[in-house]
């Protein structure tokens, strides 16, 4: 069989093998980082194992499959090389980041009682020390303080770096995710070389490089109902730098139960918001939002987009609020919500309601005294990754492979791309008709679709979007509006799946 493969496929297989071997080697090399005498023995062993295993598996693969496999290996290689480089760098670096905390029961924050600022501290913080409201006494409070930053993304990066710069003694950094290329436009503490490594460690490294006096405690874990109360009580104050509703409720309830103030920020497109919950008798998040919003009304950065500067602004302001809470300077945003409109260049502050004595968690007789299942409560995952909507039956959906066959057989149909026009400028399939989901029920669009169906003499409409969520909603909407014997389906996984399985030249965004 192998002999029947084209020359091209064979050379692809060779490349995949080479790449696979490197993945294995680098993994091992990471493990034995400094024991290079074992390196060559390992190389030979891995080489012979990998060749036999992979050759027999890949003999019958198509060229497309081989290209995809190669890309996967190469990406894995880059991430691993970055990790290895990081390990080698840290061997020569005095400011190494402690490895991330896995045993949540056992970590401790070393108490920093700062009775006197050192000469070095006076020199480093001199420009803020001479502010009368802060002064040496405020600086000592900062040095003795510990702040937990939940989420090391667009908001977490600026808040972490400013708190470290200001001399906060200990920063806890939580994020379960790893650095991706699409993070770099706004998550400014990560670097190209750190793609693939833990976000919490990456932020830790940047923070340490700026101020080695700060103790860093990274947690490569998801904050959940199981982990939250093992971590939060050990810190003085918490920053919510996350991006999903379930985590917002979890953080709120955990901070009320642990009696910690919560500095909460959010940013989307060109706008941001900021407030402080559960501080000095002020309201908590549940006092303001007793019920979660319907999941389908929540937009995140990866769907709605965000200009990087906007979380930059809000993250900096979160750091400022934290500094005020710790030092007692000025007046905080408790019971007030700050709204930032980046496009108009406007800040506004609105008054929030005061604490509700009937609040389920911070009220006089709370019914929530321990953490609950927040994904169930919100009807949404505690991540903004893929909403994975499922509103259609199996017979109303087709896979990208099935759609490819329809295209190859030249079966007459309408391909309806329901993304925004700006997204079609990024990438699109040939002959797609664009009607954004939000406009799909408009009379003129329904009329256009009816006319196209009748002029093409077809009953078939295939709806396409970026990841296969909006396309399902489009199918439901069209079924309601068209009311006829039509074959309307959605293409599962959308253009992202098309890129993975059919045409890897389509960019994933
Ligand atoms: N429950 C949680 N525990 C730990 N980290 C969380 C939790 N919920 C969200 N996060 C983290 O909060 C961060 C939010 O940052 P942001 O929205 O800027 O990043 P993102 O999710 O990487 O962005 P994108 O939507 O572009 O993929 C993410 O890094 C995410 O992993
Ligand atoms: Zn409340």
Written description of the protein model:
Helices cover 43% and strands 13% of the residues. The strands form two sheets. An eight-stranded mixed beta sheet has the order 3-2-1-4-5-6-7-8, sandwiched between helices. The two termini are 38 Å apart. The model has no long low-confidence stretch (mean pLDDT 90). The chain is an alpha/beta fold and 509 residues long. The chain has helices spanning 7-31, 39-58, 63-91, 119-124, 126-129, 135-144, 156-166, 199-210, 228-231, 245-258, 285-288, 301-304, 309-327, 374-378, 400-408, 421-426, 443-456, 470-482, 494-501, and strands at residues 146-150, 170-174, 215-219, 237-240, 262-268, 271-277, 336-341, 346-351, 397-398, 414-417, 432-434, 460-464, 487-491. Strand 10 (414-417), helix 16 (421-426) and strand 11 form a beta-alpha-beta unit. It has three domains: 2-91; 119-378, NAD(P)-binding Rossmann-like Domain (Rossmann fold); 394-501, Oxidized Rhodanese, domain 1. The protein has 19 helices and 13 strands. Helix 1 runs parallel beside helix 3. It binds adenosine-5'-triphosphate (ATP) and zinc ion. The site of zinc ion has 9 residues, from helix 11. This is Adenylyltransferase and sulfurtransferase MOCS3 homolog. Residues 63-90 form a coiled coil.
């Amino acid at each position: 069989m192998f002999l029947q493969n084209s020359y091209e496929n064979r050379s692809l297989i060779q490349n995949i093998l080479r790449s696979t071997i490197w993945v294995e080697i680098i993994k091992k090399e990471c493990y034995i980082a400094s024991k290079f005498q074992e390196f060559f023995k390992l190389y030979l062993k891995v080489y012979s194992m990998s060749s036999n295993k992979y050759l027999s598996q890949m003999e019958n693969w198509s060229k497309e499959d081989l290209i995809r496999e190669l890309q996967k290996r190469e990406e894995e290689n880059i991430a691993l090389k970055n990790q290895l480089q990081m390990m080698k760098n840290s061997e020569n670096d005095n400011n190494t980041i402690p490895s991330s905390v896995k045993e949540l029961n056992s970590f401790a924050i070393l108490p920093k009682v700062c009775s006197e600022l050192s000469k070095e501290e006076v020199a480093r913080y001199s420009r803020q020390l001479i502010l009368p409201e802060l002064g040496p006494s405020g600086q000592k409070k900062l040095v003795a303080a510990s702040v937990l930053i939940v989420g090391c993304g667009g908001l977490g990066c600026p808040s972490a770096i400013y708190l470290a710069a200001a001399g906060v003694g200990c920063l806890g950094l939580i994020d379960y995710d790893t650095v991706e290329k699409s993070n770099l436009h706004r998550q400014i503490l990560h670097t190209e070389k750190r793609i693939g490594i833990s976000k919490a460690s990456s932020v830790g490294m940047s923070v340490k490089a700026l101020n080695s006096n700060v103790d860093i405690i990274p947690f490569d874990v998801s904050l959940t109902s199981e982990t939250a109360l093992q971590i939060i009580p050990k810190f003085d104050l918490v920053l919510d730098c996350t991006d999903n509703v379930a985590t917002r409720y979890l953080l709120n309830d955990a901070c009320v139960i642990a009696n910690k103030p919560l500095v909460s920020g959010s940013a989307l497109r060109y706008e941001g918001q900021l407030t402080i919950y559960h501080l000095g008798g002020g309201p908590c998040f549940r006092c303001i939002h007793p019920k979660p919003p319907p999941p389908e009304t929540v937009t995140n950065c990866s769907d709605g987009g965000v200009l990087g500067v906007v979380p930059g602004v809000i993250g900096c302001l979160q750091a400022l609020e934290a500094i005020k809470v710790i030092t007692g300077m000025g007046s905080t945003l408790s019971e007030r919500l700050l709204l930032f409109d980046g496009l108009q260049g406007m800040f506004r502050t609105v008054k929030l309601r005061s604490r509700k004595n009937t609040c389920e968690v911070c009220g006089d007789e709370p019914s929530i005294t321990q953490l609950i299942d927040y994904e169930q409560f919100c009807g949404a995952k505690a991540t903004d990754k893929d909403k994975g909507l499922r509103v259609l039956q199996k017979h109303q959906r087709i896979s990208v492979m099935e759609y490819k066959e329809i295209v190859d057989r030249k079966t007459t149909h309408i391909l309806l791309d329901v993304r925004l026009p700006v997204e079609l400028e990024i990438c699109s399939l040939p002959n797609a008709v664009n009607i954004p989901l939000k406009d799909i029920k408009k009379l003129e669009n329904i009329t256009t679709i009816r006319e196209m169906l009748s002029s093409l003499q077809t009953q078939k409409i295939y709806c396409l979007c970026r990841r296969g969520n909006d396309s399902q909603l489009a199918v439901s909407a069209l079924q309601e509006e068209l009311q006829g014997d039509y074959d309307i389906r959605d293409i599962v996984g959308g253009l992202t799946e098309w890129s993975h399985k059919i045409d890897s030249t389509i960019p994933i965004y």
